[in-house]
Design a protein that fits this description.
mainly alpha; Glycerol uptake facilitator protein; 11 helices; globular
Length: 277
């Protein structure tokens, strides 16, 4: 697949993630007795990744997340020379998604991205990006650990030895669970692009707090993802080590429920390396 088409898929997929996930938080929560709440926002993020991976995974791998791309590189599933183009496409997609969301949200009288936080991520007692007012160390640990498990799940369910057809479903449910756990802590990032889009919109409207805390949501997810990539490579032996040979032997004669040896890196088509937040 040409790199231009893969980058377009990453742009559109990340746009959809921000529009669907952050959009649910901005547009559908502030209604007493009718709003979707934390559970609804969590499900919305999971559904955006699930649908995006099925729709676009066979084109780009459906990363939609710079941390995922870096984790896949660490796990030897993605080439280093494509990291920068993918990350740029993802950040631009997130900014486009946040921009579209802002245009929709401003159709309501009294809306303010600065006053409401615009689903930005943050930390600290007075931060709109941390509903529970969690301190920086708690936010850092949460983002590292949640991203670690997210990438481990992605690497596991997209392995050539994993059951076919379920990777986007497992990835979407994992992201839903992560949000159920960590929205009170940081509004849940695990995705630097997702954090950047809303933070820049808040900054464009005169609010500085989201951008000033944005570093956390690049450093922590990338660290967690890189650790996950190296860990899963060691754990699975997919670099050709003993664990890989044992898994291959265990899967002999069970081709109906396992992948072939052609691991094509496409989440939407079951071989893949995908998922975002």
């Amino acid at each position: 697949m040409p790199i231009s088409k893969r980058l377009a898929a990453e742009f559109i997929g990340t746009l959809w993630l921000v529009l669907g996930g952050c959009g649910s938080a901005v547009l559908a929560t502030n209604y007493p007795n009718l709003g979707i709440g934390f559970a609804g926002v969590s499900l919305a993020f999971g559904l955006t990744v699930l649908t995006g991976a099925y729709a676009l995974g066979h084109i780009s791998g459906a990363h939609f997340n710079p941390a995922v791309s870096i984790g896949l590189w660490a796990g030897k599933r993605f080439p280093a020379n494509e990291l920068l183009p993918y990350i740029v496409a993802q950040v631009l997609g997130a900014l486009a998604g946040a921009g579209i969301l802002f245009l929709i949200a401003t159709g309501k009288d009294g809306f303010s991205a600065v006053a409401g936080g615009f689903a930005s991520n943050g930390f600290g007692a007075n931060s709109l990006g941390s509903p529970g007012g969690y301190a920086a160390h708690a936010a850092f640990v949460s983002e590292v650990v949640m991203t670690f498990f997210f990438v481990v799940v992605i690497l596991g369910v997209t392995s050539k030895w994993a059951p076919k057809g379920f990777a986007p479903l497992a990835i979407g449910l994992c992201l839903t669970l992560i949000h159920l756990i960590s929205i009170p802590v940081t509004n849940t990032s695990v995705n630097p692009a997702r954090s950047t889009g809303p933070a820049l919109i808040v900054a464009f409207q005169g609010g500085s707090w989201a951008v000033s805390q944005l570093w956390m949501f690049w450093v922590a997810p990338i660290l967690g993802a890189a650790i996950a990539g190296f860990f899963y490579l060691w754990l699975s032996g997919e670099d050709g080590g003993p664990a890989a040979k044992q898994a291959s032997a265990d899967s002999d004669g069970d081709a109906g429920t396992h992948h072939s040896d052609d691991d094509n890196g496409d989440a939407g088509s079951d071989g893949g390396d995908g998922g975002g937040d």
